[in-house]
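Quick illustration, no need to memorize.
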Amino acid sequence: MSSSTIEVSGEKVKAM
């Protein structure tokens, strides 16, 4: 899987 950063609620979280 590729690790991508998603912006959620103004916070950037790492997508697994």
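The two ends are 7 Å apart (CA to CA).
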